Amino acid sequence: MSRTYIPARLRKFVIERAQFRCEYCLILEEDAFFSHEIDHVLAEKHGGLTTADNLALSCGECNCFKGSDLGAFDPLTGEFSFLFNPRTQNWIDHFALTAEGIVGLSLEGRTTARLLKFSGRVVTLRQIDAFAELNSPST
Questions:
Q1: In terms of Cα–Cα distance, which of 112, 120, 100, 129 is closest to 58?
Q2: What are the pLDDT digits (tens) for 19-53?
Q3: E strands, the chain, where?
């Protein structure tokens, strides 16, 4: 399968907007085993475009588990849900860090956390720092 060409300027914008963090699990690229990838939030096969408002920075694990999926079933209710969308939703509204790692708080959060296998991953200290920054009041 061929990959869509993403112009260097757009790629740089997406990476810098994400501050070099996976927009799903918050891991910094330098802490990840593989380089981060540019993800089409809405996959091209579903009509997603290669534009800034449809691209997110994703670690290899999140991107692999997400694939071209748009949604899945909530492990709590069994209800179908779309996945968390980093372009239109705030991370802290859908996820929290606990002793068990990243957990979903909302329908989309729980569905995404399950699909991306957050419960089986080790959380880094820098992910905890990023979470703290997201939760601090704006100044």
A1: 112
A2: 999 999 999 999 998 999 999 999 999 999 999 99
A3: 37-40, 55-58, 71-73, 80-82, 95-98, 101-104
